[in-house]
Specification:
The protein is mainly α. It is built from two helices and no strands. It has a domain at 14-78. The chain has helices spanning 38-43, 67-78. This is N-acylneuraminate cytidylyltransferase.
Length: 96
C-alpha cells in the first residue's frame, strides 16, 4: 500500500478533480487486528513491523469508538440492515 498524499492528478489539484478521476482510497479501522503474542511483548506495540491490509466489505469494518456508534449498531441490527455472523464453535474456556 502506498501513501496517498505524494501523488497528484496531473496538473489538477485533487480537491478540484472530478470524483471519478480520484484514486481508490482505503481507511484504517480497528475491526480486525491479528498479531503474534510476542509482538507486543517485544515491541511494546500490536502493530509489529510487517503490516498487511484486510479489506472489509460493508459493515464488516464497523467500529465502535463513540457512544453514538453503539446507538448506530443497535439501529443497524434492529432494522436488519446488517446481521451479526453466526459462530458455530464453543468459546475458549479457561481452567480455573
Amino acid at each position: 500500500m502506498l501513501p496517498l498524499l505524494p501523488f497528484s492528478n496531473g496538473d489538477t489539484p485533487w480537491h478540484s478533480s472530478q470524483y471519478a478521476s480520484l484514486p481508490l482510497v482505503y481507511a484504517q479501522d480497528a475491526s480486525l487486528e491479528i498479531a503474534w503474542s510476542r509482538v507486543p511483548l517485544k515491541l511494546n506495540s500490536i502493530a509489529g513491523e510487517a503490516i498487511i491490509p484486510f479489506v472489509s466489505q460493508g459493515y464488516e469494518g464497523f467500529d465502535i469508538n463513540e457512544p453514538e456508534d453503539c446507538w448506530l449498531a443497535e439501529r443497524l441490527l434492529d432494522t436488519k440492515a446488517t446481521v451479526l455472523p453466526t459462530i458455530d464453535i464453543e468459546p475458549y474456556k479457561v481452567n480455573e
